[in-house]
Amino acid sequence: MATQPSSDLTRRTAAQLAEALRAGEVTSVEVTQAHLDRIAAVDGAVHAFLHVCAEEALATAREVDARRAAGEELHPLAGVPIAVKDVVVTKGLPTTAGSKILEGWVPPYDATLVERLRAAGLPILGKTNMDEFAMGSSTEHSAYGNTHNPWDLDRIPGGSGGGSAAALAAYEAPLAIGTDTGGSIRQPGAVTGTVGVKPTYGGVSRYGLIALASSLDQAGPVTRTVLDSALLHEVIGGHDPRDATSLPEDLPGLVAAARAGQGGDLTGVRVGVVDELNGEGYQPGVRARFEESLELLRGAGAEVVHVSCPHFGHALAAYYLILPSEASSNLAKFDGMRFGLRVEPTEGTVTAERVMAATRGQGFGDEVKRRIILGTYALSAGYYDAYYGSAQKVRTLIQQDFAAAFEQADVLVSPTAPTTAFKLGEKLDDPLAMYLNDVATIPANLAGVPGMSLPNGLSDDGLPVGFQILAPARADDRLYRVGAALETLLEREWGGPLLNRAPELATEGTTR
Amino acid sequence: MSTISREEVARLAGLARIDLTESELTRLAGELDVIVDSVAKVSEIATDDVAATSHPLPLTNVFRADVPEEPLPVADALAGAPSAEGGRFAVPQILEED
To answer: Which residue does chain A place closest to B33, by CA atoms?
Structure first.
């Protein structure tokens, strides 16, 4: 009997890899090398990674294998490799957040979630591409080139975390980390046929995330299955004294909820369809898949009700006041003094202020400049109350909408994104059209509630569609129960995962 | 016509400490209307009787245990700096001199 070809290892879920490692069927070195080989073969075309750290990953894998061989009790995911979005700082590994201003910067410390990955023994494969400082919905605002959607290389992988989602869809990694400020985990998940979860705000530490908008940012899992997200969520979640906004209580039972959901029974669960997040502007194929998924949920015993969230129509406007305001403040630290790029002006006296302006003028891309200027305007004297203050009031109204809706339903659902993946370059010159991608995902960030996207079929254009589930704050387990149930029912219909229908990518350096 | 003038954009760029080229100033002036539209939109419902939410899940009195920790070693903190000298960040002159 021949040994497993390495391509098979890259097709397995993280849960399957964990089981094979535990059973001694494969080693972490074999699993990690298989993914590094896959990256070498396809990432020239996909460009999901900004940096691949083969040596470090294999060193971690060897260590895990040795400890397992010595009979040590290890974390269930020990030895399963992972990719990390480049907005998360990693000690000793370059971190750019997709910006030229941080080109070549190597952080001197780990984000808390990275510490937890390392403690659990997950080899880090590399850092994934993203819109510069997570500002975008297509990864086209990266200073290091586009990431391509594995379903169609001429299309966007979503954003800002297009690199993490594309790495999963291209079988370059079994797990990845994303961050979600307005949908940057969920929307890339939807357009690449993968799973992404934005936990409850404060559920995963923000310490060591390069902040975009601190009151909205949240890190979470990017995976191919709901169970894998739950497994990863339990590794990175939990209280962190280094983050003052970190929830003091643990949110356990996520993996148990996913396993319970896999039974496919949702008897007694009330599912609320948000009427404001489905209708005009949503592609017909997206709406059709959504209706079919609701039918599956009904068949599983769920009670589907309709809820109204009348203020969601104002969420996008509030977001585009709050995000630039907080970003303009957070990005003030890029001053050319302590890390990253320093540019000296070519004429006049070289003062700190002029160095800062020259550095930022050269180091920031167009979208970052645009949002900093917007934020500076919204926060400037005389405008603060009318702009940032009014937007904060909208947050209150959106929270009230959620509270009323969760009186009637245990979870809320909608399509994750209004359309499937668009062509690279198609919306680059139309910021407003780009922003509309996030219309269904932004309310969760404004209210701090958790959300998940999972693939629920292909649209008329043959591209993947995402189904969004939202739960009350701290009830992340509900996402996993309902998500796993729907995934099970869908895969029963499809005869396997949706990603099986993605076209095979041409590989470099191997004969087929 | 855009509501925010090119001169206003130049003033904001100064406040934000970003050197913008002439063409960037012109382009940005045309793109900032989104904020005026956003303000108009939120003002429809952000009435006086609505409280503001600054933090999605409010926590109060967040303290860490009063336990000393090892700080980041100076060499590590300076390793990524564009310029360092004598265990400190080296920066250009702060004040403009005549």
So the answer is: A374
Q: How far is B12 from chain A (nearest CA, A)?
A: 6
What distance in Å separates the CA atoms of residue A88 and residue A207, rounded to the nearest whole number? 9
The more confidently predicted of residues A13 and B37 is: A13
CA B59 to chain centroid:
24
Q: Which residues of A are catalytic?
A: 85, 160, 184
CB A234, CB A117: distance < 8 Å: no
Mutation target to probe the B interface, by most B beta carbons within 10 A, among A390, A428, A445 is: A390
Range of the domain at A161: 8-313+396-497
The pLDDT value given to residue A321: 94
- Runs of H (alpha helix) within A194-339: 226-236, 254-261, 284-299, 315-330
Please give, rounded to a whole number of angstroms, the shortest distance from the CA of A439 to a CA of chain B: 14
Residue A160 lies in a domain: yes
CB contact under 8 A, A244 and B83: no
Whole-number average pLDDT of chain A = 95
Whether A358 is covered by a domain: the verdict is: no
Helix or strand run (H / E) with residue A307:
strand A303-307
CATH superfamily entry for domain B1-46: Glu-tRNAGln amidotransferase C subunit, N-terminal domain (1.10.20.60)
What is the predicted pLDDT for the residue at A510? 53
Q: What is the pLDDT of residue B30?
A: 86
Residue A204 to residue A212: CA distance in whole angstroms: 16
The stretch A133-151 carries a mean pLDDT of 97
Whether the Cβ atoms of residue A243 and residue A205 lie closer than 8 Å to each other: yes
Cβ-based contacts of A473 with chain B (< 8 Å):
56-57
Q: Say if A335 falls within a structural domain.
A: no
**Peptide linkage before A160 cis (omega within 30 of 0):** yes
pLDDT, average across residues A470-491? 98
Mean pLDDT, rounded, for A124-137: 97
Q: Least CA distance to A336: which residue of chain B?
A: B82
Residue in chain B nearest A316 by alpha carbon: B38
Residue A415 falls inside a structural domain: yes
Number of domains in chain A: 1
Residue A428 has what pLDDT?
A: 82
Report the CATH number that the domain containing residue A432 is assigned in CATH.
3.90.1300.10
> Which of B18, B83, B93 is the closest to A361 by Cβ?
B18
Q: What proportion of chain A, given as a percentage, has pLDDT over 70?
A: 98
Domain ranges of chain B: 1-46
Cβ–Cβ < 8 Å for A236, A221: yes
Cβ of B52 within 8 Å of Cβ of A395? The answer is yes
- pLDDT given for residue B2 in this prediction: 59
Are A392 and B54 an interchain contact pair (Cβ–Cβ within 8 Å)? yes
| pLDDT single digits (tens) A319-360 | 999 999 999 999 999 999 999 999 999 888 999 999 999 999
| Contact yes or no for B12 and A432 at CB 8 A | no
Instruction: Answer yes or no: do A360 and B17 touch at CB < 8 A.
Output: yes
